[in-house]
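User: Once you have settled down, look closely at the record that follows, taking as long as you need, and be ready to discuss the fold:
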Amino acid sequence: MPLNHTSQYSELTDEHFSLIGRVVVEWSNVEFLLGGMLSRLLFTPEFPGRVFSRGMGAARLQRAIEDALELQELRYRNIIVSEDLASNLRRMNKKLNVLRQTRNKFAHFAGLVSMTMKSLVQDFQAQHTVRNVKKKTVPVSR
């Protein structure tokens, strides 16, 4: 029986599972590097910095990096982290937002691929009926 209790034809293949696993593992490497970057921006030794940031997800790490870049500008007037480097880091952070969303689709919505056709049709019909109700029309019976 497939893992998700649906038809064997809607089950993800071993190659799908392998690729999803690769995306998730590579993303964990990105999170690890973000934690290291945060430590460096805050002048924190690596080990205490990692202890502090280990429970943070990527979105929270990215916000903390933005805050650390602001600290570099306001407190240190870009003496240590130049304006050019800070703008490059901000650009990278924005690109990571898109990649994080893509990673989340792979990691959390892979099960949607395994939905049965019947449930997809039911979802469509429910949405279609709601749309018709809003227009004050009655769906055609079949």
Summary: The chain has a mean pLDDT of 80. The first helix runs from residue 14 to 41. Helices lie at 14-41, 46-53, 58-74, 83-108, 110-113, 117-134. The chain has two domains: 14-108, 116-142.
